[in-house]
Amino acid sequence: MPYASANAHVHFALHPDHQPAVIATTTGPTADAARSHLYDHGFRSTGPATMVLARIDLEEPHYTARAAEQLRLSGFITEIDPALQEEIDTEWTWANYSMPWCSRAEIREVGAAAQRIHDDIATGHLTIHLHADDGHTTVAVGSYTTGVRRHIHLHGEDHLRQISTSYDTEAEAVAEFHRLYSVAVRPGPAPLTDLEQAVRRLLTGTTPSTAEATSAPATEPPVAEPGEHEAFLAALFYEDRQWERYRPSDETTIASHESLTVRVEFDHEARHRTDVAWTVAEYDGPVGERLWHATLTAGTPVPLIHTILQHLDAPTLTTAGHPDDVLHGAAWHPASHPASTTWAAPDRSIVFESTPHAVADRWTLYGGEDLDRAAWTIRLSAGVPYDLLAQLAGTAADLIPSPTRLSPKPLPAPARGLPATAPAQRVRGR
Known about the structure:
Blueprint (H helix, E strand, L loop, with lengths): L8 E6 L7 E6 L3 H10 L3 E2 L4 E4 L6 H14 L3 E4 L1 H8 L3 E2 L9 H20 L2 E8 L4 E7 L6 E5 L6 E6 L2 H12 L4 E2 L6 H10 L7 H5 L12 H12 L3 E7 L2 E6 L4 E6 L8 E8 L6 E8 L4 H12 L9 H7 L3 E5 L2 E5 L5 E5 L8 E5 L8 E5 L5 H13 L28 E2 L2
Parallel strand pairs: 1-5, 6-22
Antiparallel strand pairs: 1-2, 2-4, 3-4, 7-8, 7-11, 8-9, 9-10, 12-13, 13-14, 14-15, 15-16, 16-21, 17-18, 18-19, 19-20, 20-21
């Protein structure tokens, strides 16, 4: 029985450019509630009234049917396009499936496990350290960063990716990976497969006319030159008398604001792109609790550091709005993931990421399109003021040159061996 009256209509249809992905269109006074339900079932927003379900196991019709049933039980009106209904009603299997002993239900379970691994990597819950080609497929070693920390080896791609081995420590997992794959080992995650690229395009709302902008190589991000941070720190004490300087060691300088509510620590030895050069914290009074904190690595452009310290020194009297509004106005590209939302600069050289359920790293701003190999990183905890985030977003947008117009390019085939229209046969090849 419906638990509440839900005056909303949800229409499901196959995606016109990548099947069997599904588009859900929501209308009605309680459309937001319907969209919340759809999000729980894996759909991601691509517009004010549209959401997309795109999976690397290509089981979208099956999961759409489950989502539609749950929506109906909750009182929503649902409608399934006939072509999609045909896909839902038809059982299919992979051609030349590598585990032929599996039943259809077991194949779906393998695909669901691969989807979870894919989502964990996309959300940053699983960090990939190294990858290699073992002569048959892609293998990788990675570590989970949340929950029960595990260090694992992965085997396979797309719907066949599995956890092959688990280890107690990262050092053990990495050492064994080097032993097994030797000279084939490469740093970081493997390049996205054709199917992963197609799914990413769908989830970011990329249309065929803008596909080239998404697939083009990212521009090199702006990076601070050697000595810039030192010069900025010296100017801070020379030009602004509200900061007092302490030097507890040769490696560290501490800047304390006269309000005694802000503390900034600078590491003079930070050199590598992953080294934390700045640690910033604001407190609720001279002896109060910490409100929020941030860390900035060695290559962070100085204008971003200046924005943070200027806000702490003299906050603006008016709010600057939400960072999403600022980035939308600067034509940055949004993307929704299961546990986060990202905004990428038009040239993909800077990314702003929000992880609403995290505490330590609620907001992350980094240079480059891959957080694992970022040129620099700013991490901000929960509690950071929205007006500061909006100012950071504005400064980051100002660091990016105006995007140039790109000529249209047809969207490539969405996945290896998969047609872009509804399949005539019910065996899908790889």
